[in-house]
Amino acid sequence: MTDLTVRVHDIAETGVPGEAGCVRVFDLRPDSDALPAFEAGAHIDVVARDGLVRQYSLMNAPGETHRYVVAVALDAQSRGGSKYLHDWVEAGDALMISPPRCHFHLIEDAPFSVLIAGGIGVTPLWAMAQRLIALGRPFAFHFGARSEATAPLLDLMRPQLDVAGVPFYTVFESDGGARLDLGRIFAEAPEGTHFYACGPAGMIDAYIAAGAGCPAGKVHYERFSGAEAPALDGGFEVELARTGGRYAVEAGKTILETLKDHGINVPHSCAEGICGACECGVLEGTPDHRDSVLTDAEKAAGRTMMVCCSGAKSARLVLDL
Ligand code: FES
């Protein structure tokens, strides 16, 4: 769903233009009315050329409604989104975006928070850091990147964290291949700490493993891409509670694709289980969750699911559609 139009007010660029790792920071502003408010950790969909939709975390201070700021790293593996925003979009251009959505919630009254960022994954964590500073809540920030010279947002964040007295730890691979010591970060955090991480898949997998001993609900993360393959085994039926329609999901198809084939359009965006746009209520049956949006507790409860990637463990699912 992309029903907001914003204009590119300004673009700041770091790194070598056109090369992988180059980061463009877009300051997006409305032509007239204020933008919908957003919470730390939220993201927006941005429509690139040919209708391609990509998700970008908002990195400006939550509470600002005169602008949204997103940072886009040029990705050599890009399917078009980051390349389009690097090569084609200039100041003054209009962009179609969605209202903000948030599945990466900050627990604002936690006794202590630890933010852990890898590369361009720093963007939602920087929004969280600004929120925690505004609230006067204690936290520490760990940031890993390839090199100090190309670390996204470093020049913006360091002085503000310094003024606020926030412990800020950096690790750069160019300094000898060191990585964030996740085991130590978890071990040394005070009791009751909530942890937040965003970064490359390998870092998030290591983070989840390092935090396995933490109490439930304290280890939060957001991925760039789907962690699991979509459920494509088929062999079950989906019933839509509001219309009574029943549809067989065949091997090789997701629920979303099956419904689309029958002319039923479920709102969706990333189609890989990371944005939450296709979330549907589950009234009967057992989902086979494959997304990176729901928490383990939400998956176990089975009351909601992402139909772009998740399937069924039962012969029938009844969805609240
Ligand atoms: S469309 Fe993004 S999670 Fe399903």
Could you characterize the architecture of this molecule?
Keywords: 2Fe-2S, Flavoprotein, Iron, Iron-sulfur, Metal-binding, Oxidoreductase. It comes from Asticcacaulis aquaticus. This is PDR/VanB family oxidoreductase. There is one protein chain. The chain is an alpha/beta fold and 321 residues long. It has three domains: 94 residues, Translation factors (Elongation Factor Tu (Ef-tu), domain 3, Beta Barrel); 110 residues, Rossmann fold (3-Layer(aba) Sandwich), CATH 3.40.50; 84 residues, Beta-grasp domain (Ubiquitin-like (UB roll), Roll), CATH 3.10.20. It contains seven helices and 18 strands. The strands form five sheets. A five-stranded parallel sheet has the order 9-8-7-10-11, sandwiched between helices. The longest helix is centred in the middle third of the chain and has 14 residues. The mean pLDDT is 91. The chain binds FE2/S2 (inorganic) cluster. FE2/S2 (inorganic) cluster binds next to loops.
Helix content: 10-25%
- CATH homologous superfamily caption of the largest domain: Nucleotide-binding domain of ferredoxin-NADP reductase (FNR) module
* Number of domain modules: 3
**What is the global morphology?**
globular
Total E-strand runs: 18
Our Rg estimate from Cα atoms comes to 20 Å
Order of helices and strands: EEEEEHEEHEHEHEHEEEHEEHEEE
CATH class of the largest domain reads Alpha Beta
The set of bound ligands, ions and cofactors reads: FE2/S2 (inorganic) cluster
CATH topology of the largest domain: Rossmann fold
CATH architecture annotation name of the largest domain: 3-Layer(aba) Sandwich
Distance between the termini: 17 Å
Specify the biggest β-sheet. 5 strands, parallel
Number of helices: 7
Mean pLDDT: 91
In percent terms, what proportion of residues is strand? 25-35%
User: Biggest sheet, strands in spatial order?
Assistant: 9-8-7-10-11
Backbone structural class? alpha/beta
